[in-house]
Amino acid sequence: MSRKILSCSLIALSVAACSSNDPRRASGDFDYAELKEAQQLSIPDNLSKPKEQNEFYIVEESKVRGPIGNQVDVRAPSLVLPIAASSRTVATTTEAVIWYDKVLEDKDLKFFIYQAIEKALVDENIGLNPIGDDGLSFETDWLHKEKEDGWLFKDVVLSESIKFRFDLLTKPHGRSVGIKASLIDYMRTDEQGGSKTIDPIDRARAEMAVLNKITAQVDFEYRKQQRENRLLKATQKLVSLSSNDKGEAAYQVEMPADLLWQNLPIFFERHNFTITDLNESTQVYFVKFTKPDISLWDSIWGDGAPVVEIENGKYRFELSEKSAEESLVTIYNDKDEALSEATLQEIFAVMDAGLSFRE
Questions:
Q1: Phi, psi (rounded to 5 degrees) for 106
Q2: How many whole angstroms from its chain centre is CA 12?
Q3: 19-24: long-range contacts at Cβ-Cβ below 8 A with a sequence spacing of 24 or more?
Q4: Is the pTM of this model over 0.90?
Q5: Fewest CB atoms within 10 Å of the CB: 37, 62, 211, 348?
Q6: Who contacts 41 (Cβ-Cβ below 8 Å, separation ≥6)?
Q7: Which of 155, 15, 204, 176 is nearest to 103 (CA)?
């Protein structure tokens, strides 16, 4: 039998029921469990028998549905925890089901969730096997858990094995995917023998525990993808040297022209450009540039925005659309001459950061 130890967070099943200190069970005195129903009143024949209320009758132990006394399970109920972004549960069901709404527009949600299930089980070296041809149902391999006892020579005193089934639930619009976890097979062997029966409460706890493990993995995958997106954006080259339709040197910016037009005033404010006029229909800004005075302390402490090394004077920033997602910025001086490629290259480091709006 495999001796792989499964983490407690994955299977929250019973360990041993023979101990008097079993934390699952109620403790104390249970005199009520020994009580018997009082003998019925004997009513004389010449009197009317009173109406009986049987709501509080003590049911015979053999007819009780569920545990009594120290057999009552006192553990807090398990819950499905929707900790991942845009995850939710359905309050009207007690089944181990959780729904995920689309967060990453460039990812197929169903495949993303399937990968999360695989990764959640890979730490335990547990395989996932498809059922049917629709690609929506899967069964796990056997998950094994053992408890050993002894000091010098250890013996296995408890062995539990379990199998799960996962069903992916989809909505017609394709923006929501649910997972239903079901315990489908169980085996237990201890000092008292073997059994394939699991307590209903333990079944529900195991289903919810494995579903919570998957949800934690989904949350981790979301966070990892968001981090990768931030790093990609931080290192992406958004600005490069190019030329406009007239063959004049220009900056090419990986941003729609309308969005760049709206953001350029931020660049001007940070780099000592003052807007004197503008033409929104042709997307032209008229600006005046004054090189800032940098004190000794500013140079030591690095305060203030990097300086654009051009002459003081009037300039014109003309925007044009190269494609739906790309723009061109041509800069003209007060003589109506486009700044040369050499000048644009000289100030590229400052313009790259400024027109990328990373500051």
A1: -90, 10
A2: 22
A3: 23/75, 24/73, 24/74, 24/75
A4: no
A5: 62
A6: none
A7: 176
User: 257 by DSSP, 3-state: which?
Assistant: helix
Domain boundary assignment for the chain? 75-231, 239-356
In angstroms, rounded to a whole number, what is the distance separating the alpha carbons of residues 297 and 332? 33
**Where are the extended beta strands (E) located within the chain?**
87-88, 97-101, 128-131, 137-140, 143-149, 155-170, 176-190, 193-195, 239-243, 249-253, 273-279, 284-289, 313-323, 326-332
E strand or H helix at 209: helix 200-235
CB 113 within 8 A of CB 103: no
What is the C-alpha separation between 66 and 218, in angstroms, rounded? 37
User: Does residue 99 contact residue 215 with C-beta atoms inside 8 Å?
Assistant: no
Domain 75-231 sits in CATH 3.40.50.720: no
User: Could you give the CA distance from residue 16 to residue 166 in angstroms, rounded to a whole number?
Assistant: 28
Rounded to whole angstroms, the Cα distance separating 124 from 92 reads 32
CB 41 within 8 A of CB 47: no
Q: At what angle do helices 109-122 and 200-235 cross, to 10 degrees?
A: 110
Query: Is the domain defined by 239-356 classed in CATH 3.30.310.170?
Result: yes
Strand partners, 97: 180
Positive or negative, the Cα torsion across 126, 132, 134, 137?
Answer: negative
pLDDT tens sequence for the chain (359 residues): 333 434 444 444 444 344 445 666 666 666 766 667 667 778 888 888 888 777 777 666 666 666 666 667 767 777 888 888 889 988 766 788 999 998 887 788 889 999 999 998 887 788 899 998 888 999 999 988 887 777 766 776 788 899 999 999 988 888 999 999 999 999 988 877 888 888 888 888 899 999 999 999 999 999 888 877 776 666 667 899 999 999 999 999 988 899 899 989 999 998 899 999 999 999 999 999 998 876 544 444 445 567 888 999 999 999 999 888 889 999 999 999 999 999 999 999 899 888 887 65
Residue whose tokens read 């695989």: 118
Length of the chain: 359
